[in-house]
Each structure stands twice: as C-alpha cells, then as structure tokens.
Amino acid sequence: MKKHVLGAIVLTVGLGNLAVAQAQGRDNVSIVGSSTVYPFATVVAERFGRSTDFKAPKIESTGSGGGLKLFCKGLGANTPDITNSSRRIKKSEYDQCQENGVTDVVEVLVGFDGIAIANSRQAPQLTLSLQDLYLALAKDVPGPDGKLIPNPNKTWKDINPALPASTIEVLGPPPTSGTRDAFAELALGGGAQAIPALKSLRELGADQVDEIKAAVAALGIPEGFYQSYSQSSGKAPKGKDIFKAIAYSVREDGAYIEAGENDNLIVQKLEANPNALGIFGFSFLDENGDKVQGSLINGVEPSFDSIADGDYPVSRPLYFYIKSAHVGRIPGIREYAIEFASDRAMGEDGYLTERGLIPLDEVELKQVQADVASLKRLEM
Amino acid sequence: MQTSTVFLTLVALCAVSFFIGRHKSRLIGMAGGGLQTLHSLPVHYGYMAALWAGLPALLVFIVWLGVEAPVIRNLVIAELPAEVLALSLDELGLYYNQVVGVALGSVDVGVVDANQVTAAHRYNELLTASRGLKMLLVSLVAVIGGLLAVMRVKPDLRARNHVEDIFTWVLFACSSIAVFTTLGIVLSVLFEAVRFFQVIPMNDFLFGLQWSPQMAIRADQVGASGSFGFIPLLVGTLLISMVAMLIAVPIGLMSAIYLSEYASRRFRAVTKPVLEILAGVPTVVYGFFAALTVAPFIRNLGESIGLSVASESALAAGLVMGIMIIPFVMSLSDDIISAVPNTLREASLGMGATMSETIRKVLLPAALPGIVGGILLAVSRAIGETMIVVMAAGLSAKLTINPLEAVTTITVQIVTLLVGDQEFDSPKTLAAFALGLVLFFVTLLLNVIALYVVRKYREQYE
Amino acid sequence: MSKDAFKNTELIQASLKKRYARERRFQLFGKLAVLLGFVFLFILLFDIVSKGTPAFTQKQLQIAVDFDPDKLGVDASASAEQLRQANFNAVIKSSLRDMFPEVTSRGDKKRLYRLVSIGAEYALRDRVIEDPSLIGQRKDFWLLAHSEAAGYLKGQISRELPEVERKVKDIQMDWLDQLRDKGLTKSSFNTLFFLEGDSREPELAGIRAALQGSFFTLVVTFLLAFPIGVFAAVYLEEFAPRNRITDLIEININNLAAVPSIVFGLLGLAVFINFFELPRSAPLVGGIVLSLMTLPTIIITSRASIQAVSPSIREAALGVGASKIQTVFHHVLPVAMPGILTGSIIGMAQALGESAPLLMIGMVAFIMEVPGGVTDPSTVLPVQIFLWADSPERGFTEKTSAAIMVLMGFLIVMNALAIYLRRRFEVK
Predict the structure, then answer these.
(1) The model's pTM
(2) Chain B contacts of C41, Cβ < 8 Å?
(3) Is ipTM strictly over 0.90?
(4) Does residue B430 contact residue B191 with C-beta atoms inside 8 Å?
C-alpha cells in the first residue's frame, strides 16, 4: 500500500508540473527554412547569442518550401520571424503571404552556394564541360540523326574521348531539392545550349508557332507534344519552355543516383566508390579536401574566387526573408539580420566565408546592408 | 508553479474526502451493528467521496486553464486605447505578446510604449485575480462534491459498484485513445491526400508504373512533367523488406529456439537483453553502417565475381534492416515458443524424439500461428522503417525485383518530399500525404491478416 | 519375433546416429544464429566506439595573454556591461602574434588565429568579468584549441597528405609542434561536451541541451503512455466484451504499432500544433506524439504479461468475493507489473531513439540554450546526432559518434533495468 501511495504522489507531482503549459511571451527569434542556409544561419545565431544580451535564435531546418509555408501563415508570436531559403520566394507564395496579412517582407540575399561536382582523390581529377554533363545526365539527348533518343551513354568515354572509360555514376540530390533544381538549370541547361538545334529552339518566341513545331519535329518529338503542352500550361509555350522541358530532365536509368540531402554521406560514399561522381554544396568540398576533389567545369576549378567571380558556372543564391511586422515586437530580429549582413559575417573575409559561403561583391553587399537597415519591403 | 499548487490542493482535498468518507462509513457501520451491515467496504465509500470531490473539480480546473489565457487577453485588449485597437488582429497579437513579455519580465520595459506597460500591469493584476479565483472555485467544487458524497454515505449505498463503474469507463476511455489516434492520423493526411488526387488521378497513382516527381520548383521553370506511379515504390519497399526478413527470420527464429530450448538459464538471461540492444541502436547509426560499410562491401564482392551491383543496392539496405529486426523476431518467437505447454514437449521427448525433432515436429507447428503473426508485425515494422533506407537505399524508383539494383521505398519518398525545397502546394508535397495514407492502409491490411491468422489457429493449443 | 525385435533395434541404432547428427547440427545452427547476432552487435559497437572516443578529450594551448587596456578598449574601472563589449578577440590575436613574432604575412596571421577556438574569447571575457583586476596584467591561460588544431594534436591529420588536401597547413603543424615541444599543449577530459548546448564550433558543441530535451520529452511520454497503456491493456484483457468495438480497438492498436513513425509526426503537426496551438519545438508536443507512438508497444506487452498471470489467482480472488476491479488491481496487476514495466521500458527506449516524427513538429532545430521546461524550445539526442552527422565541419564526425555512445549508454542502462525487472519476474 505504501508503495502505491508513493507512486501516486510522484505521478501527481509530475502531472502537476506538466500542467504549467501556459501561454508565455516569446522572447527569442524563431527561424525556419532551408537546410542549405541552416549551416550559415546557425553560425550567425551562435555568435549573436554569445556576444549580445539577446537570447540565441532558434533555427529549424524544414526545407525552403516548408519554411515559407510556416512563414506565410500569418503574423503572431506562434509564427516564425525569419525563413531561410535556397531559392527566391515564388509569386504564389508571396501572394499567400499577402493574403494572410504578412504584407511587409524583407528579402536578404546572403551570398552564393557553389555546387561542386567531385570524385574521390583515388581517381584522376576530371575536366568536364557543361555539354559533357548534359550528355551524361540528361534523360534524352540528340542522337546521330539529330532526333532525341533516350540517353545511350554508358561510360564517360562515350561522351568525350578525352574522358576515362569508367561507367557514368553520379550521386546527386533528389528532385525535391533546390540544389538539384539549380544544377539542372545551370549545368544541364547550360550544356544543352551547346547543341545548336536546342539552342535555336530556346530562342524562339511564343508567336513563332510554326518554327517551334518544326524544331520539335526535327528533334523527333511526336507532334501531339506541342498541343498537349500548350493545353496543360494554358498558354502557347515559348521555345524556351520546350527547351527546358527537354534539357532539365535528369535520366532515371540508374546512371544518376538520387542520394538524398545528406552531403556528408555523399562525400563518404564517393570515398568508398572511386568511380562515382557526386553533386553537393561547395562547403562540403572545402571541408573534405583530403577525400574528394572538385572536377573542373569548363576548365574552371571550384574555389571561392572562381565562384564569387562567376567564372565557375554552377552556383545558386541563398536568401532569407524577414517579417517586418515582427521587428520591434519580438526582440532581436533586426539585430540578428544586421549581424548576418555585416562585413564580419558576410563580407569577403567574414566568418561565413570561412564556412564555405561565397560572398557577394562589394556593391551588392552595401546594397543588402542598406536594405536590411531600412527594412526595404519586397515587391513582386 | 501556481497551477501545480492548485493541482496539489485538489489532490489534497481528494485525500481528505477519502478519509472523511471512509471514516464516516465506519462510524455508520459500527453504529448499525458492525461493518458487515454496509453494502461496501469503508474504502469504497472513501474512494467514492474522493472521486466526487476530484472529478468535477478537475473538469472545472481544466476548463479554467483552457479559457484563462484568452479571457485575460480579451480583457487586457479591451482596455487598450483606440489607436492600438485599430491594428489588425495579427498585429494586435504581436503587440499583446510584448505585453505578456513585459509582464513576465522577459522583455525589457525600455523598448515598449507606455500603453503596453499599463497593459502589462493590468495583465499581472488579472492573472493574480484569475489564479485566486481558480484556486477558490476548484476548492469550492471539490469541497461541495466531497460533502455531497459524504452526506450520501448510508449502509445501503452501493459505493463499490458506483466506483467500479466510473473506473471501467476510465479504462474504456484509455483503450479508445488508440481509435482516436487512428482517426487523427487519417484525418490529418486525408485532406492533403484528397487535394493530391484532384491533380493526379487516383488510378494513375495506384497503378502507375513510373515514379519520377521531377516537377518544376519555380513557376518560371517548366522542367519535366512528373509521374506519380505508386507501384515501383511498393515493389521497392517489399523487396527491401523481403531481404530484411530473409536475414531476420532465420537468425531470429533460430536464436529464439536455441535460447528457449537449449541454452542454460543464465546464458539466456544474459544473451537475450544483450541482443535486444540491437533493437535500441538509433536507426541513424544503422543507416551510416549500411551506406558506408555494407554497401561498398557488397558491391566489391559482387564485382569480384563478375556481377554488376549498384552502390545503393537493395541488398545492403535490406541486410542491415534485417539485423535491426533480429531482436524483434527473436523476442516475439521466444515468448511464443516458451508459451507452448510443457506437456507437449514432455510427451514428445518421452516418446524418444530428440530435442530437434520435438522442436521441428511439435513445438514449431504449435507455435506457428503466433510466430506468423509476429513475423507479419515485423514486416510492417520493416515497411515503416525510414532512416536506414534514406541513407542506404537512395531514391531511384526503379521497378525491379533484383536485389542488386537500387530501389526506393515509400517512407523515403515521404521524408524527401516533405523536407525538400519545393513549394508546399505542389503535387510533389501533397504526394507525401497520399503516400502516407496508402502506407497506412497497407499496414492495416497486413495487421488484419496477422490478427486473423493468430485468432483462427491459436485457439487449438491453448 | 525376437529376431524381428533385434532387427528393429539395429535399425534404430543405425538411425540414431543420423538423428543425433541432425540434432547436433540443429543445435549448431542455433548457436550460430546467436553468435551472428553477437558479431553484428560487436561490429556496430566497435565502429561507434572507435570513432567516438577522441571526442571525450579536448586539447588546450597555453597562451600568455596580455590584457592590454588599449586593445580591449576598456580599463580596469569598466562596468560589467562595458566588459561584455570589450574586444577580447584582439587581445587573443595580439597575444598569439607575440608568441610567434616571425609571422608577418596576412594569410599566415589568419592561420595563426585559427589555432584557437572562438570560444576562448568568451571564456576570457567571463574570467575578466569575474576578476576585473586582470586588466593590464599579462598571464598564462589555457585556451581551447580550434577543432582543426585539436585534430592534428590528436593525431587524426597526417603530415603525409599533400598540403592542399588538408585543412591544417604545414605552417600550422609547425607551430603546434613547437607548442607541444615546449609543453604548452595539454589534453583534458571534455567537460564542455556534457555541459554545453549545441554549437557550430565542433570543439564547443555539447549535448546538454539535447539531453535535457530528451529527458523532458521522455517524462511527458512516460506520464501519458504508461498509465493510459496499462489501463487500456487491463480493459482489453479483463473487461472488454468480445464485440465489434473491441475488435476495432484491437486492430487499431496492432496497426498503430506498425504505422511509420513519421506519420505520427504529421498527426502531431495537424492536431497539436495547428489545432490546439501548442508551441512548436516543445518537448510537450514531442512527448505527446511519442507517447501515441509508444502506446501500442506498451499495450501489447502489458496485455501479454496480464495474460500470463495464472487464472488460479483470478479465480481465487473472485471466489472470496472480490469484485472484478479488486481482482485486477489487487491481485493481477501486481503479479504482471514486472512484465509491464519491462515492456514500458522497451517502449521508452524506442521513444528515446526516435527522430523522424520530431522533424514535423519543429524539434529538428539549432538549440544553444538548455531548455528549462516542457514548453521551451528544445531538441533531443537522436536529432542532435542527425544534425551533427549532416554538418560539413570534420570535427563533428567524432562528436556524432560520441553522442551515439551516450545515447547507447542510456539505452543499455534502460535495458539493464528491464533485465533486472525480468529477473525478478522470472523468479516469481
């Protein structure tokens, strides 16, 4: 009996303590969003928390889309103040924000994230052109007669005699990832433009219906394609749209392996498999220089300078968005943003650069700092 | 801690009611010619008094907790000057958040305006008042309830039945939580799933042979059209689960047989829990192990004998998942084999059968339905496993039953679709909910079968 | 007749040999299976322990720190508030330059500064706030080494590698060798690992916040799942009539045991965060979600152990006039309790190692501050492991394994508790 009484007392005290879940004022900045920006935002948050009197912000890694959804849900202490994004906010998302009362949004361009294409140090360093990447990884490529055929290339040598005869095996992010999106646009899209037929298709306007149809026919795409395409999108497509549909599709026969979002894992898989190439963020290449080496793209090696100068062709911008209505209501938002945009963080020698962020150039940085200071409203 | 004070007071009042109820029933019983004249034992009268005191007061308490914050909020806001009230509802919420912050001392007074400071004072006043009232009301209800119960104590009051009825209802409520959870799960994925099926026809989803959610992320970007065929995912999931079962069932079952029939008591007492550690290893760890150790090993092994093995082979993921499930199969089978009546064992051994013959011809058939049920549970566990496959199996949705190739599973797709960078209303994200719904029904089906098997065949041996 | 019997015996004799061989083979398979289990466990543990052990030591460098008021920007009379703002970074930098006066180029200076952790700056700040008289003095301090420098001192980075391929350059290695030869480096037990919250600097990162978060989450889980689970099991085993509703409940419970955990996360998001408006990232919500997830395990195991209670106990109790409730609560449950507790502990262990559902309710987050209650933002141990495993910095590899070791340690303790209870149960 005594034991039971004791147990009951422990239980009730425990339950009693739980019951104090009352609404309290939130006094730390709440940040959500992209897992690509997360490693940078957390560094800023840590320094901010350690060196000021404000509480350290809470940063969740939810993915860009999930972050923007939470962000645009409305105002109030139970919604996030800032969302990180590895792509620009979409018009539809912006509209949703407006609809839910999040009218004033400040956009902050943080810098760039280079996308490295790397392989194990045990294998020779590759020199690839964008066209090589397109021919290796696109779903359909022009065959000998100029018509699109399912990608027949099995080894790198099939594409370019200068490359080794190893099997094409590329580990990369899944279609849900912003990294993949940027890679498709910059690398595959860029490579496809090196093929004259595709390049000329890309330049056709929406009104040049016959030319587009002719170009599509020359590529061996069935005639119905144009029709069904314009029906599904609801307007006459431009040549560029069709070009994107062709060029941005990644092959799915096993040569491109969707390997998830964990870049560390990709690095380690590359180490275990010297034949494979991997696509991941530049900061992981920077940190794992002893294990993997970046391939030269169009003759340029991925490095801070080459990415910042724009010589290295595959990189993407990173952003975060601030809810202006929360500034002044939740302590620390403006101060955090200013710290993020400061020279010592985002500048050329800033601590974020050490972590692999590719900084903005001087003029852009000044502009961003001014925008943050004045909380410039984003118009779309 | 105010809230817990009220709670503790309530508990104390219940205890007091209990003692008074018990005491009074004793007095009445003794007066009426001994305790046997009472319908129930004195404790039951005590329990009844405690329940009467506790339950209504607890209800009041919970309701009060629920409405306290909104009521105070409205009262404080009502007293704010007109220009503040002109703010939109959401902005008012932020404004008020700051007021609460000031009141609780977490926001510096310097950064807010005078109205907010006044409001904060008002907030504190109201909060104190509310806490006092809450204490008073809860105590009052408890005392009245307790008194009513105590007053009703009579020799013919059926206190025990009364208390036990209440208890049975509480027990029933607890077991029905499972139903509510299921309902909650279905409801929380259903709406999004329905929105998905408005974009992608259900037939294409359920019977499509191609899964490639390559849809554009940005509006200005067209990309390939996505196809959302569920079959490759299902086949991939089943393939990996099958490999896992091929590892886990023989090893788990044989271990269970050895431990329950051959091993000494001490060996068993040590071995079983040690092997159960395998079930406790975080799945992230297994994921790394599968991706970095097992997968390259299998690949090299395959290449050395001239087979082409994908570096993300289903075999590697399945193998490691099998290791994880070994203790699950082992524990379940061990319990079931141990539960086979000893008479069967002794009869067979008495006829001169060896131990292994007894096991194979007598024990296993007797335990089979239970083991099959357990294995089906293990299968649904394998189907639902996420982290290992996320790391080791990759995401290529290939329709194949060759375990040396890379496949993907439903859970992996759910995770990647939900945490990706795409916008939240695109079919890609919504597909995750549809997958969740389908997965739910697949496991439901498996469980109904398992339950049916166990029910139908178990009875004979008990 | 006797001849036949003799023949039979011979036949039996002959077959016996075969049967015994088969018996031995069968037993061997059994042993092999158990052995395999052990081998797998050993490989896993070895892998983790060998990777994680270095994380429990930290490296420090002895630096003669000159608290020059000019560099600090404050003098000895400064208030604590001014001291907080003082420039300790500059002090550390100049002290390092004083130790290696030959360093002049900008790049080399940068490399030199990189030997010391950024945490040193805040550690010095706290020391000076404690004792402002240090200002103007020159004193030797043990400062935390940067994770890269510590990696070299721990022997994880080899000079053999070409310089471009490693983060620690030749010149940094030379400096560190010099310091080591002078006895100015030391290793000590990494207390920070257990006392600090998350950090992006591997040498500063700790598991305290995650541990505390896990603790709060598990408390909530246990307080909800244990009573509800046991009550549900009692109802289903002892009271439930055999009808449609009971069947429905039973199928539901078995099914919930198999629902992938991430789906529980979706439920938590929709019901507790969106509908009940409970705070995101809070152990309260995490605990509720995990308790829903572990409920089936607890119910199923509790039912099994209630079932195992001998009917004679029930009949005896009922026979002397106890009511159903009395029988169950006074006689059946006490006997079944060790089994129930074992099942609950296994369920809790499962909850402790779970990370997928917490993704949906905002607990996959960067949390530096140690949570103080069930509504404070927090994360849990497996999530911390997941986040560290995904960090680019090399120093987090060992942290990841070390955190796994801690998590496994807790699991083993919980399992040991389960063994103890099971022993008591089996003796009965």
Answers:
(1) 0.85
(2) 274-275, 277-278
(3) no
(4) no
